[in-house]
Amino acid sequence: MKMKNIKLLSALALMVSVAFTGCKKDDGPIRSSIIVDAVPTITTNIDASGSQSIDLLNLAAFSGKFTVSNYFAGTPGPTKVDIVVRKNGSNTNVKTYKSDITTLPASFSVTAAEIAALFGAPIALGDTYDFAPNITVNGKTYEAFLTLPGAVATGPGVKAGPGFSEFASYGAICAYDPNIYQGDFMVVSDAWADFSPGDVIKLTKVSNNSFSFTDPYAVNATPVPIVVTVNTANNQASIPKTVIGTKWVWAGVGGNPNYTGAFVQTTGAATASSVAPCSQTITLNMLYGVDQGTYSPYPLVLKKK
Fold this sequence. Notes:
Layout: H1 2-21, E1 42-46, E2 54-55, E3 63-70, E4 80-87, E5 94-101, E6 106-111, H2 112-119, E7 128-137, E8 140-142, H3 156-159, E9 168-173, E10 183-190, E11 200-207, E12 210-213, E13 218-219, E14 226-231, E15 236-238, E16 242-245, E17 247-248, E18 262-266, E19 274-276, E20 281-290, E21 293-304
Parallel strand pairs: 2-9
Antiparallel strand pairs: 1-3, 3-6, 4-5, 4-7, 7-8, 7-9, 10-11, 10-21, 11-12, 12-14, 13-17, 14-15, 16-18, 18-20, 19-20, 20-21
């Protein structure tokens, strides 16, 4: 037992010796060979009074307002910032919007024409534009959009800070216009085959984000409107379960089962049903049903006449 204790103490002494020989005078939480620059934390926030997206149907109306400011008020700011803009998330496709901004906070208002001129191309559906500052401190510039693989300009801890925004982002969309979705629409295709291509369906405006139509193939003394509601933030469309008749006209005819009831609704992923204001089309992933069950989804595609 005594011999084992001696061996154990010898081993511990050796470990301590190795540990100390591996240390240097400047060891600590951060070694002296590591250079740490005090880079101010700058936040870029969209102003709610401006446009939140770029409407391709009304480019002239776009006014993207945002403010660049020191996230920690009262702390030293940068020497200057240059406001740059990235297109479609590509860090290799970045242009300078404004240079040599020395006073923060600073507010900006950008137009669609300015964005198109910067990149030398018209704004297209689905384009995104991210505005952020390149920060210069003591002669060193810290870029907002780094091209080094895996590098990030802002750490996750800062991004999670309340009210912090890394950049102001604007996406190009065709905003929903209730004036488009009323009147005559032609059937492009109907997998359910109630309608034929070229048939006309009349849409009626219900509200600024909804419209309705009727299905003449449901038996009912008075046609029941099928109301389509549009999420104007993303143009996704939906129809709740709507009973539109006592049966379908084909029920009990030509050998078809004499099913009762007739209802419709949209189904599947939220993106399966949507409106496209640029092309003035509608796609509805329709589920048709009877009291006895439902039929697989059948897309209905319409286009403004």
